[in-house]
Design brief:
The chain is of the alpha+beta class. The chain has 13 helices and 14 strands. The structure holds zinc ion.
């Protein structure tokens, strides 16, 4: 077979040791004719000795070693920008004197090590047009189908806080098509944070300052408010005690998924991510708190009566915002079970290492059971 002209491709494991022979031609992954291979531009292409080319494998992920490699392979790989179908890539390879079968085997090996991703054709249509937008988007590389899912998504952030505003900017920069930040207050000096409101925003409506922050991160993102009666795909509750605010229950009743992302005092809190009827809800969490402290409802009423002043160190706020963004994107992409289902991630100084705290459904709430009954599934 032609690939044997180049010898075997070897997976370079993350630790740097050669781990296993990769024989992609024996059992190649299924690749559709419409696959658009994309090798992220930052992937290192390194000459290793006189005749070997190492692709990736210098960080915490695997790479691929091709030995010997023909002239022109590195240039061909560097040109994998996700805009050509694989057939066109192989045709170009043939024109350059490279064996298409061997190139195909290398691409399969890169897929197997997850160095290369395939862009769905519809994602190309969904991504922003123009060279500047394409350059901004090139480093994002969500999973196949991810661009389309993110581009069509509507996310509402409740609270232009030191977490909510940078979070909205991160979501927009990550390709979420419509990001709306809702807040009726004005910016105070303490609201300023990297990636969010600036010192110059003091006194402006928080919602406008947040929209400007999002626009700085992603100029083409749709910032229009979500009309009354319209269901966003997900709501982020970014005010410190919104999770205990009865007003948040409206999102549960409407069946809209919602995620808590805030800083209380000095500690960041991300989660739970509530998928109504499927996971535990915010009332479940409050009932658990009541079990631990019968006076909790009285305390919660005081906590939710007013919004406390901005708090949390910049690093805590930004880490909380990014951690929450990861959860939102995981939910929108549909490629993984977000870790904040039935749980929170607490991000406390001084180490700021997220710690997962389970919040199971509460037997007195019945939020999950109600949906089971509605669907006729009584469950165990
Ligand atoms: Zn519940």
């Amino acid at each position: 077979m032609a690939a044997s002209l180049w010898g075997a491709a070897v997976v370079v494991p993350a630790c740097g040791r050669r781990q296993r022979r990769n024989r992609p031609r024996c059992d190649p992954p299924l690749v559709s004719d419409t696959a658009h291979p994309l090798l992220p531009a930052a992937t290192p292409l390194l000459r290793r000795g006189v005749d070997s080319l190492q692709i990736g494998g210098v960080d915490s992920t695997d790479g691929l070693l091709v030995t010997p490699h023909p002239d022109g392979l590195a240039g061909l790989l560097r040109g994998l920008d996700g805009r050509r179908v694989q057939r066109a890539v192989l045709a170009d390879a043939a024109r350059q004197g490279l064996d298409p079968g061997a190139v195909s085997a290398v691409l399969d090996g890169l897929r197997a090590t997850r160095v290369l991703v395939d862009v769905d054709a519809a994602d190309l249509v969904a991504s922003d047009a123009g060279p500047a937008a394409a350059a901004r988007r090139a480093a994002e590389a969500p999973p196949a189908g991810g661009w389309r899912a993110r581009r069509s998504a509507v996310v509402l952030v409740e609270g232009a806080t030191r977490v909510g505003t940078p979070l909205a900017a991160v979501l927009a920069a990550s390709g979420v098509g419509r990001v709306s930040v809702r807040d009726s207050a004005v910016v105070s000096a303490g609201d300023a944070v990297v990636g969010g409101a600036t010192a110059a925003d003091e006194g402006r409506p928080r919602s406008l300052a947040a929209a400007d922050a999002v626009r700085r991160a992603s100029p083409l993102t749709d910032l229009r408010p979500v009309p009354e009666g319209t269901r966003p795909d997900l709501v982020v509750l970014a005010r410190p005690w919104a999770a205990s605010d009865p007003a948040a229950a409206a999102w549960a009743r409407a069946g809209v998924p919602h995620l808590v992302a805030t800083v209380r005092g000095a500690t960041g809190v991300v989660g739970p991510l509530v998928v109504p009827g499927v996971t535990s809800c915010l009332r479940c969490a409050d009932l658990h708190r009541r079990d631990a402290d019968p006076r909790w409802p009285h305390l919660a009423a005081q906590l939710t009566a007013t919004e406390p002043p901005p708090s949390g160190a910049t690093v805590t706020c930004l880490l909380t915002a990014v951690t929450a963004a990861v959860q939102v994107l995981a939910y929108l992409d549909g490629d993984a079970a977000p870790v904040t289902l039935d749980a929170t991630l607490d991000i406390a100084p001084p180490d700021l290492v997220p710690r997962r705290r389970p919040w199971p459904s509460h037997p007195d709430c019945g939020c999950v059971r109600r949906v089971d009954e509605a669907t006729g599934d009584n469950g165990p």
